[in-house]
Write a structure and sequence with these properties.
623 residues; Rossmann fold; seven-stranded mixed beta sheet; four-stranded mixed beta sheet; elongated
Length: 623
């Protein structure tokens, strides 16, 4: 409707119906009027513009360190097809990614979801669906935008001293009647008025009938035709009738545009009032003051920020209910492996764990966090995917009491969640120093250790191949020391992946080894993505490169270098070159040989050996 109306009035302006709109000044004037019209009839704000958290900011939020939500790999709009409203999609994503550190707050959210999915809330679900299908969501969003309806004077009274009339329903109707009926009627009757008004004036002085007057006018026209010629007379009459017809057409088109615009504005104000009434029926929904409908309600909303805020709060509440309903239906149907989990358990455990971004046929695994997890395996086996799956379900469980585990499970509520999946170096910039990969990685590792030691309510840390840019001997030792140190901290759990062999050598009570390996018996190599107990030492990088045809000219050489024993390079002691002895001096005497035996402390014996033997007298007796 808006686009059609703008096009109609734009055509009218292009034809110059408002007068004085030709030439350069006319183009500028047209642009200004069209911009004002677009401001009145344009689209409303997007749902994300009204609320960033969609009302899901926890009262006791869990501390998030690093890119927890991004690292979890949540889809852009999880379970979007189940949401009725556009805002419900964003609200559902926010609901699943707003973890709380309070088990009671999570349980309260679970109770709200259960109620909205129950038979008692069937009427609410039906009304929310109808609200979305009728397009009322977008119309109510329009009311939330900041705009001045008096910018388009054809719809509202724009004189400041008379704007109070916009709040009077009777004045609004009178303005509509004048714009849509009276003005077109006056334009239509203009020729008749121009023809009859002289007869009315003459009749006051002379008794002249209408028939005689019309015969007189016809005679005058014939006289003009005889004097000026028939063709000029016909042209003059036709031009007059053409201008009248054009004015009538433009008047009717403006009237239709005003009629459609005012109906659209009134419908949107009614949608806003409908949203407030629907939100008031929701559990803990906002109660808005009574809102007027029609053009009066739209005008008041455009002038009062409090009314617009009430409509925003109502929409946020409806989107939250829509998100809860969609999540409840997904839990009931088991879509994407979404299941309700027990909140507040001693340890986290998931049965049939998967990831929301993967298809339903994905391989699922049972994972428990009764200890820290050290995950090893070859490239592409699924170590990072397993880490992301645990992270995504932990975040969703502490946010909405659900997990992406087909078999359900239980979660321990942690006070802090920390994730560092990837590390990047930075170059030195203006006013700031650069940071190498080693510096960035160690800084994040140090920060994770501080979180583990200082988090209230325990911490769950996720590290994907930390210190991967550090030499393996030192990097592996640091990662091993980190895992062993955090295993001693009460309430702390770590999920870490690495290719360092030292991680597989961790042996302490608070760490459990998991592995994911490839099946090398198939051609090409396949990845079953099955999680097994114990560490892995599988290496298949060369085989994967051959199958992919990457670096094929170097793989054979690299593999041959790996098979060769690596020589150890001993440091050679620097000996000074002997100075030449004078020719007259005798040659130096030979140093006597030492005894081959050893003292009680294990040091070599310094005594000379006996003649014809290799040990001294004392060691010869011992023999």
């Amino acid at each position: 409707m808006e686009a059609e109306t703008i096009a109609v009035v734009s055509d009218m302006l292009a034809l110059g119906a408002k007068g004085g709109l030709s030439g350069g000044d006319g183009d500028a004037r047209r642009a200004t009027v069209e911009e004002e019209l677009g401001q009145v009839l344009g689209d409303g704000p997007e749902p994300e513009d009204l609320s960033q958290d969609f009302g899901w900011e926890p009262e006791v939020p869990a501390e998030l360190h690093g890119d927890v939500v991004a690292d979890a790999g949540f889809p852009e709009a999880p379970l979007a097809e189940r949401c009725r409203t556009r805002g419900g999609q964003g609200s559902l994503r926010r609901l699943l990614t707003s973890p709380s550190a309070d088990a009671g707050e999570i349980a309260h959210r679970v109770e709200r979801r259960r109620f909205l999915a129950s038979p008692e809330a069937a009427d609410l679900r039906r009304d929310i669906r109808a609200f979305a299908e009728d397009g009322a969501e977008d119309e109510a969003l329009w009311v939330c935008g900041e705009r001045d309806l008096t910018a388009w004077p054809l719809d509202m009274v724009y004189w400041k001293r008379l704007r109070f009339m916009n709040e009077r329903p009777l004045a609004i109707r009178a303005n509509l009647v004048v714009r849509c009926w009276v003005l077109p009627a006056v334009t239509a009757l203009t020729p008749l008025v121009a023809l009859v008004s002289p007869w009315i004036a003459i009749r006051r002085r002379f008794p002249l009938s209408l028939g005689a007057y019309l015969r007189l006018v016809l005679g005058m026209v014939r006289g003009l035709a005889r004097t000026d010629g028939i063709l000029p007379t016909i042209v003059s009459i036709t031009a007059y009738l053409g201008v009248w017809a054009y004015s009538l057409d433009q008047s009717l088109r403006v009237a239709m545009a005003v009629w459609r615009t005012q109906r659209g504005i009134a419908r949107r104000a009614d949608a806003a009032r409908r949203a407030c009434a629907l939100a008031a029926r929701l559990p803990e929904g906002p109660v808005a003051p009574p809102l007027a409908g029609g053009l009066v309600g739209a005008y008041r909303a455009s002038q009062d920020p409090g009314i617009r805020q009430a409509v925003r709060d109502a929409l946020v509440a409806i989107w939250g209910a829509d998100a809860m309903i969609a999540l409840g239906e997904a839990v009931a149907d088991g879509e994407s492996g979404v299941r309700e989990v027990e909140v507040g358990a001693d340890e986290t455990r998931f049965a049939g764990l998967g990831h929301p971004a993967l298809p339903d046929g994905q391989v699922r695994s049972d994972v428990g966090l009764d200890a820290s997890l050290a995950v090893t395996g070859p490239n592409r086996a699924g170590k990072s995917t397993l880490l992301r799956a645990v992270l995504a379900s932990q975040v969703a469980a502490q946010s909405a009491g659900v997990a992406f585990a087909a078999g359900g499970g239980a979660v321990h509520v942690y006070g802090a969640l920390s994730s560092h999946m990837r590390v990047r170096d930075t170059l030195a910039g203006a006013g700031a120093g650069g940071e190498s990969l080693f510096e960035a990685a160690t800084r994040l590792l140090h920060g994770a250790l501080d979180v583990a030691r200082g988090a209230a309510g325990g911490a769950l840390l996720f590290l994907d191949e930390p210190l991967h840019s550090t030499p393996p001997v030192e990097g592996g030792a640091i990662v091993r020391a980190f895992v062993e140190e955090t295993a001693k901290i009460d309430g702390c759990r770590v999920v870490v992946t690495s290719h360092f062999p030292d991680l597989a050598r961790v042996e302490c009570g608070g760490v459990r080894h998991l592995s994911v390996e490839a099946d090398e018996s198939t051609d090409p190599v396949t990845f079953p993505h099955v999680v097994r107990e114990g560490p892995s030492s599988q290496c298949i990088a060369f085989k994967l490169l051959r199958e992919a045809g990457i670096l094929s000219a170097l793989v054979d050489r690299a593999e041959d270098l790996c098979r060769r024993p690596r020589p150890t390079r001993a440091k050679a002691a620097k000996t000074p070159s002997p100075s030449p002895s004078p020719p007259s001096s005798p040659p130096p005497a030979k140093a006597p040989a030492r005894c081959a035996g050893r003292t009680r402390t294990g040091l070599p014996c310094s005594r000379p050996p006996v003649a014809g033997g290799d040990t001294c007298t004392q060691h010869a007796k011992t023999k």
